[in-house]
Predict the structure.
Amino acid sequence: MVENIWLLLTYKVPADPATKRVALWRKIKGLGAIYLQNGVCLLPRTDDNMRRLKMLENDVAEMGGESVLLETTALDPLQGEKVVARFRADRDEHYREFIGRCDEFEKEIAKEVAIQKFTYAELEEEDTDLRKLQGWLEKIKKLDFYGASLAEEAAQRLNTCEAVLDAYAKQVFEANEDNKGGAS
């Protein structure tokens, strides 16, 4: 078994202002960290994560707080697997939300097809929404350090969304060609 090495950040910041404390929490979660308890979080040991956590240490100090950044490993394989399972569960939660948004995207396109709203403006709006989905999935994948179980389903759902938009685009183009009266 490959030994996982993690960065462990512990911090304590003043309760007020709460907005700064929440912003710090969001930054840490945005890195893909898991929380073991309040003010104690883990990330896989990478140069990028080390740099970002060191920058967050500075943020904690500017808030009048204290922090300690350590490198750590699990005492045994079972403990290591518990940590990895937590990372996977966090990513699966994000993938689940993403898949839900894919459902909404597909329903929106189906609604437009049902009412035959084949306009370039609508196509542009849907294309923008698809690009947001693509970017979102890339962000999730970047934080999926241990291969969450829903990763493949999320990728397949994005492929489906792309295919649905392509089919809708063809209908838009055909409808707008027909509206030109077939002039060549």
About this structure: The chain has five helices and four strands. Residues 6-73 form a domain with the Alpha-Beta Plaits fold (CATH 3.30.70.240). The longest strand covers residues 6-12.
